[in-house]
Each structure stands twice: as C-alpha cells, then as structure tokens.
Write a structure and sequence with these properties.
Rossmann fold; pyruvate-formate lyase- activating enzyme; OB fold (Dihydrolipoamide Acetyltransferase, E2P); six-stranded parallel beta sheet; 17 strands; 22% strand; binds iron/sulfur cluster; metal ion binding; tRNA processing
C-alpha cells in the first residue's frame, strides 16, 4: 500500500505539553503525505501520547490502546509519553503495540513509524533510555483550532515534590534558547494564530540550560509581531517574581490570567509534599498580582487526600481557598505513584474521604467561578472568538478567561472584538453584546 493512502490517528492524554507535542508529530505525518483522521475512525497507524500523573491515567492509556487494536486490527500502534517512559515493558506487552518510544526518543517517532510501515515489521520495539540521560528537547507547538497555540518553552523538572512522578518521566529541567522560541512564535504568527499559551513542566525555571531567565523570555516574546496575546499556563508561586508580575502588569499582551499550583492550604502538608513555598508566600503572590493588575483571573491547583491530611487540615485548605477567592479550582484527588516517597508515608487517607473532599472543593469551585462571572456582569472585555458554532452561537475567551457567548457571525472567527458582558447563560457562560 502506498504511504499516501495511509491513515494516521492521534490520541493524547494529560497536559497541554503533551497536546503541543502530539500536534507537532501530527504535522510531521501530514507533511510526509499521511492522512490525519479522528481516533474514532479506522486507521493504519495510531499514535498515543500517554500520561502517568495518576493510576487512572495509566488505565485510560491501556483502555485506549485496546480500543484501537480492536477498531483496526493490524494497525501500527505507536505509544510515547510519560507512561511509555516509566513502564515501557508494561506498554509493549499489551497485544497489538508495535512501538514504544520514551522521553528522549519522542522526536524520532515519525521517522521510526515510517520505517516500520515500509518494513511491514510486526515485532514490538522499545526505544527508551534511563531518564537521567535525557537531555534533548523535542521542540513543539500546537496548531489546533487556529485561534490559540500551545508553545512548549521548557521541559522536565529539577524539583522533587514527594508525590510527583513527572521528573522520572520527563527528566531534568531544560529549554532551548529564546532565539529559537522566537522563531517558533513567528511561525505561529505567520499561520494567523493570535494567542500563545506558554507551556512546560516548570516554566518559571526557564533558562537553566541556556543562561537566560523566564523574565528574558517573556520580554522577547512580547515584541513578536502578529501575536496579540499570551497566557502563562502554570507557574510555581515561588518562581512568580515581582519582576515577572510587574512586567505582565505593564504588557498589553500578557493577560491578567494566572494559573498557580497551591496543592494544599496548610504548611504541614506543603512540607510533607516538599513544595518550595509556604501558604504565606502563596497569599503574598496573589496580593502582589492584585495590587498590580485589576481583577485578575486566578486558577489554582489543589490536591486533596494527601497522606496525613486530616479533616482539620482539609478544612484549613478550604477556608484558605475561600478567602483567596480564585475564579477557578483544578482539584486533583491524591493518587499514589510508584517510586515516589509518598509510597512510604503513613496516615493514608481513605478513598471515600478523598472523594468527599474532592466533591466539596468541586462545589466551592462552582461557587467561586459563578461569583467571578457575576462580578464582571456590566463590564466589558476583549474576546478572541473561536470557530465552533453551536445552536447558532459562537464562543470566545476574554483577557480574564471569561467564556463569552454571542450570536454566530462568521466574520468574527479568530478575531478580537470588544464585548459588553450582559448576563450569565444557564450553562454558566457570559452572554455578551458586541460594542
Ligand atoms: S514542581 Fe513538583 S509537582 Fe511540579 S513537576 Fe516538578 S516535581 Fe512535579
């Protein structure tokens, strides 16, 4: 069969970093003459970019692989990502898997799949090395809906949070020089995309391998023609310096939207987690942002049910979050990962208590999110509209990440438009009116 007729499907689990990498792999295949299809369809090749942040994520990966094997018997199943790096043998032993590529080999996946297709080989292959040896950087950015691109600026992490398996899956903190990232930002701008989300594992740590800094990076990106706005996907509170905040405050492009991991609102649990800040620092960072930038959107990550977290500790976290009034909470039920220090910790929290605490913070999130939207009714924002059309409506996000709904108008797709916030829709979006 000619390769031009080969159909390739992609399936991504996990973070935005994985999405940016899959998008880059997909471009390599389509530029090579392959036809990209949905993973719900029959295909000749399935590329699965896995995640291993929780036990549930591993399970989803295995289920996806089995589904694709059943859907298209004989297809080339190529698996990469964190699960593939951490447990290559386990992945290779799943029936139908032909290729497993670890963190260092991800950038070679396209080349190796093409060779397998040409050789018609059926022997499973594992390409993976010790994570401590991984020092290359797979350059990546996404080109999904042509409105927003996720640009990978950094990979790996040198921190050793006691619950986290990511340093074992992605290796040490590293990045490519600013100059190369600017080239990528220019490519993104040339495609017509107006918004870039900076992604990485620990992006505040940017510059370690190139003698630069995160502040240098955002200063240079700010000057790229054609890109109208930037969001910082997630940044550790201890790396969110006054200089970074002040730069964002005066920049017309870096938006008043901050995603910051807290993980726990008690210093006792933060200590057990080996996080590099205490709750006072976290609170101080939010206060600093609020004093420099009016009405920012805060999204906060929190883990519930960490070993040793008592009902009292949880209540303290709840009250802390209630007081901070973020606009959104990303709630993660604690999940034990092999080869992390938490395996040996005592006072594990019962699954039913973890679920109850996650539900409780879920409700708090709903309340805070609604509160933030209501506070903004009557105000206005600059919205970048997307292409999705649903029931005659279109949607876009404002600077402050408010999801705005207006009647569909094709001319506004991928355009920035000023909108007045009128009221909340029944499903919780902001109903807007063009100004
Ligand atoms: S900062 Fe901590 S939680 Fe985040 S990737 Fe690094 S080790 Fe994991």
């Amino acid at each position: 069969m000619e390769k031009e007729s080969k159909r390739v499907a992609f399936y991504t689990l996990g973070c935005k970093l994985n999405f940016s990498e899959t998008s880059t792999l997909a471009r390599q295949f389509t530029e090579g003459g392959y036809q990209k299809v949905s993973h719900h369809e029959a295909a000749d090749i399935y590329v699965i970019n896995t995640c291993s942040v929780t036990e549930q994520a591993d399970k989803k990966c295995r289920q996806a692989i089995r589904k694709f094997v059943k859907q298209s018997p004989g297809a080339v199943i190529a698996v990469t990502g964190c699960y593939a790096q951490l447990k290559p043998e386990e992945v290779a032993n799943i029936d139908g898997v032909k290729l497993v590529m670890g963190a260092a080999e991800k950038g070679e996946l396209y080349k190796r799949v093409v060779e397998i297709v040409e050789e018609n080989s059926s022997i499973p292959e594992i390409h993976s090395c010790e994570i401590t040896q991984v020092d290359n950087f797979f350059k990546a950015y996404s080109m999904g809906d042509r409105t927003r691109s996720f640009l990978k600026v950094q990979d790996g992490c040198d921190y050793r949070c006691s619950y986290c398996t990511i340093p074992l899956a992605r290796g040490k903190s590293r990045n490519i020089p600013i100059e190369e990232l600017i080239k990528q930002a220019n490519e993104i701008a040339a495609s017509g995309i107006k918004e870039i989300v900076l992604t990485g594992v620990n992006i505040g740590d940017f510059g370690k391998t190139t003698g630069e800094s995160f502040l240098d990076l955002i200063r240079h990106l700010d000057a790229v023609d054609g890109i109208k706005r930037y969001r910082i996907s997630s940044i550790e509170p201890n790396l969110l310096t006054d200089e970074v905040i002040e730069f964002c405050a005066q920049s017309a492009k870096f938006l008043p939207h901050f995603h910051i991991p807290l993980q726990s609102g008690t210093n006792k649990i933060l200590g057990l987690m080996r996080r590099r800040y205490r709750r006072e620092i976290f609170e101080d960072r939010l206060a600093k942002i609020r004093s420099a930038i009016p009405n920012p959107f805060f999204g906060i990550d929190v883990i519930v049910g960490f070993p040793g977290e008592t009902e009292e500790d949880f209540r303290e976290t709840y009250q802390f979050l209630e007081r901070l009034e973020p606009a959104f909470l990303h709630v993660f039920p604690y999940s034990e990962r092999a080869n992390t220090p938490t395996v040996f910790m005592e006072d594990k929290v019962k699954d039913s208590d973890i679920t109850d605490r996650a539900n409780c913070l879920g409700l708090l999130c709903e309340k805070l999110h609604k509160q933030f939207y209501e506070k903004n009714v009557g105000g206005e924002g600059l919205v970048l509209f997307e292409s999705t059309k649903r029931n005659g409506k279109m949607y876009g996000f404002s600077e402050r990440y408010i999801k705005v709904e207006i009647p569909y108008n094709e001319k506004l797709v991928n355009q920035l438009a000023r909108v007045k916030y009128v009221s909340l829709s029944p499903d919780g979006h902001m109903i807007g009116e063009l100004i």
